[in-house]
Design a protein that fits this description.
- By secondary structure, the protein is mainly α.
């Protein structure tokens, strides 16, 4: 008898079903990762957003105060005043640009952590922030480098187009420059949507596959083929949703700030109460805005990872690999390869159910235990047989003698007819109308 593998429970469900996803599933499950591990995702995203905002405000405000405070010692309208004003504006603008890049880099780190968390949540795994950070840390440099290259390319293209429009306006006519600006803005909207959708999967490829920047760009360009409109629709809907929520929250707070200022200082003179009311309202507005931005960043990053997983399921059968990984993990196998790596970079995974395992059966009651049989021994060879001797040939038979030819028998003369038998007197048949054609025995014609 063979012992079948032991029963194991059904695999634990992740945040998505392990099969190709539809548009509604991707859009709805984009919020599932935030519910799956809110302490890591929401807390980390909100903390990073707050740090970036504080650095940006304090840095730009401090540099601006240090540079523009020199204007108080100069007389307005002089050349020195104008030079200091231009230099202060340039320094403050440069500081704002650099600090903005730093804030963008911090958002990129949040996106990397979200990608790592979603990849584990799909297979029903939940990690703490230190474990996620150790996983995504090797790819942070490439992700920041990709963001910097993308920002540099956008800046160069925008600068070149702006310079060309200014040159045309100066050389030809300012009205033509205005028309060109409108056309460029209108044409840049679909172009930016197309490029952002084609490059949407680059962070996922950098984090989960460990690809290079060039390889991740090519990978995203190929994977999104065939799912372009689904990806575009999901990203646009999520962006519009959180943009509307931010406006819906900030507009009442702005009206509240204006109303409190009017009530506390009706004459327009700055008082302590008016300043406190304005500060409280501004701080509350920024806190709610940062919260909405943190949630939006997590949800949008989750949606991009789900689109990446859906594209790989449809093109590469990733759902089969993930199902096999989950089944073997729940069965207790600890030597599993990373299922997110491409097939060429990971060893071939053996089938989930191997050959049956034969376990020793307990003896029946009252029966002696099973004893091993002695090993098979070779049998003695058969005794040598005498060699085969050829039999003598049969003697030649005498030939048959020729038979006489067949002769046809001679015809015999016909036999004479026998006399007719006399009628039987015991039977009588009456005559019929048939005359001589009637049957004398039966009386029928």
């Amino acid at each position: 008898m063979s012992a079948h593998p032991a029963w194991t429970p059904a695999p634990r469900p992740g945040i998505i079903p392990l099969h190709p996803l539809g548009f509604g599933t991707i859009l709805g499950r984009s919020f599932a990762a935030l519910r799956h591990n809110p302490a890591v995702l929401f807390g980390f995203a909100l903390g990073v957003q707050a740090i970036a905002f504080i650095i940006l405000i304090l840095g730009v405000g401090g540099i601006g105060w240090l540079t523009f405070s020199r204007l108080d010692t100069l007389r307005e309208g002089t050349e020195e005043f104008d030079a200091v004003l231009a230099g202060s504006a340039l320094i403050t603008g440069s500081a704002a640009f650099v600090l903005g890049l730093l804030a963008t880099a911090l958002q990129v780190i949040v996106q990397a952590v979200v990608v790592g968390e979603v990849s584990h949540a799909v297979v029903a795994e939940k990690l703490r922030l230190p474990a996620l950070w150790r996983q995504v840390r090797p790819s942070i440099g490439r992700l920041i480098g990709y963001s910097a290259l993308l920002l540099l390319a956008i800046s160069l293209v925008a600068g070149a187009v702006t310079a060309a429009i200014i040159a045309i306006g100066v050389a030809v006519h300012p009205a033509i420059a205005i028309v060109l600006i409108v056309l460029v803005i209108v044409g840049a909207i679909p172009l930016s949507l197309w490029l952002s959708t084609k490059l949407l999967l680059v962070p996922s490829a950098l984090i989960l596959e460990g690809a290079t920047i060039r390889g991740a760009i090519a990978r995203s360009w190929v994977l999104v083929r065939g799912r372009f409109w689904t990806a575009l629709g999901v990203i646009v809907i999520i962006s519009l949703l959180f943009g509307a929520i931010a406006q819906f929250v900030s507009l009442p707070l702005s009206l509240l700030s204006t109303g409190l200022t009017t009530i506390v200082a009706p004459t327009g003179e700055p008082t302590a109460g008016a300043i406190v009311a304005v500060v409280v309202t501004v701080v509350l507005t920024y806190v709610l805005t940062l919260t909405i931005q943190a949630v939006g960043l997590v949800v949008q990053s989750t949606a991009s990872v789900l689109i990446y997983i859906d594209c790989r399921m449809r093109r590469e059968g990733l759902d089969i690999e993930l199902l096999r990984y989950v089944e073997r993990r729940d069965a207790g196998d600890d030597s599993l390869a990373d299922p997110w790596r491409p097939r060429a970079e990971r060893p071939r995974m053996p089938p989930v159910w191997g050959p049956p395992v034969y376990a020793p059966q307990p003896p029946y009651p009252g029966q002696p235990p099973y004893t091993a049989q002695p090993p098979y021994t070779a049998q003695r060879p058969y005794p040598a047989q005498p060699p085969y001797t050829a039999q003598p040939p049969y003697p030649a038979q005498p030939p048959h003698s020729a038979q006489p030819p067949y002769s046809a028998p001679s015809p015999q003369p016909p036999a004479p007819p026998s006399p007719a038998a006399p009628p039987d007197a015991r039977t009588w048949t009456p005559p019929t109308a048939g005359g001589s054609d009637a049957d004398p025995q039966s009386g029928r014609p």
